[in-house]
Amino acid sequence: MTNTMTSKCLLIICACFISGVSSQDLSYNSSISNIENIRGLVKPKSRAVLSSEISGKIVEIRYGLGERFNEGDLLVRFDCERYMADLASANAKFTVESKKYENYKKLLELNATSDIDVEVSLAEMEMARAEATIRRIFANGCSINAPYNGRVTDVFVNEFETVLADQELISILNDQLLVIELIIPSTWLMDMNASEEFIFSVDETGREYAAKITQIGAIVDPVSQTVRLIGEFLDTPDDVLSGMSGTATF
Questions:
Q1: Which of 2-6, 10-14, 136-140, 214-218 is the least confident region?
Q2: What angle in degrees, to the nearest 10, is found between the helix axes of 81-109 and 115-140?
Q3: pTM of the model
Q4: Euclidean distance between the first and final Cα of the chain, in Å?
């Protein structure tokens, strides 16, 4: 009787152990299967918030929210009258100091002045040159041009407002170079390379697009054991916008 009870207990324990292992294996295999589809987010490769380089009154904001522009296009223009006047004055001062310096050099050749007078004149000319350069930089800040082709994502000021230097004016992005940000398990790294191709299904369009990995993150998150990847579309789609999301299938 005792042997019979012992045998039954052993059978029950073995059955539970086998059942537990099978359950773990099933869960593990399921997670591997689900991991083939990774959620991703479309982002612009380049985006920027452009700020004022000078203090002054805005006289023109050429593009509004969502509007498209080309590289080099004027985005924001300031009233530049005062800065141009300062530049003209600085240039005139430099011209005067340059002529003085040339005159002192001729006088030195005639022994009509001293070396120190020539050196002082040279220093004054260089200071005038530096001042003219500073004024030119301020004058150049009277207009803000687009650094690349793109679209306006936000405008923070209005025409005819007076703003301070370093104040945020307009936010832009380059929508012609979109990237896909993915978060994958770190265990995938051994089989992942920087040119791995995948299919990205965008939720908002309902379409699939060919893409490839271009960058692999250098740090593994120690808590989630994941790493960030950056992918790019093989052909830039016209119907995909920054901020759209989807699923990557490898």
A1: 10-14
A2: 160
A3: 0.74
A4: 59
Q: Among 149, 157, 1, 133, which Cα is nearest to 65's?
A: 157
For residues 93 and 72, give the distance between their C-alpha atoms in angstroms, rounded to a whole number: 32
191 DSSP assignment:
G
- Decide: helix, strand or coil at residue 209: strand
Over residues 23-54, the pLDDT tens digits come to 333 333 333 344 468 999 999 999 999 999 99
Asked if pLDDT for residue 117 goes beyond 50, the answer is yes
Distant-in-sequence, close-in-space partners of 54: CB < 8 Å, separation ≥ 6: 78, 83, 138, 141, 142, 165
Q: Which amino acid would we find at residue 247?
A: T
Contact between residue 77 and residue 59 where contact means Cβ atoms under 8 Å apart: yes
pLDDT, one tens digit per residue, over 126-171 is 999 999 999 999 999 999 999 999 999 999 999 999 999 999 999 9
Max CA separation in the chain (angstroms):
133
Distance of CA 23 to the CA centre of its chain: 46
Domains of the chain by range and CATH? 36-45+172-249 (2.40.30.170), 47-171 (2.40.50.100)
Helix (H, G, I), strand (E, B) or coil at 91: helix
CA atoms within 13 A on the CB side of 194: 5
Q: Distance (Å, rounded) from C-alpha 8 to C-alpha 18?
A: 15
Under 8 Å between Cβ of 192 and 212: no
Question: For the residues of 129-162, what is the DSSP string, one character each?
Answer: HHHHHHHHHHHHTTEEE-SSSEEEEEE---TT-E
User: Measured between alpha carbons, how far is 13 from 187 in angstroms, rounded to an integer?
Assistant: 34
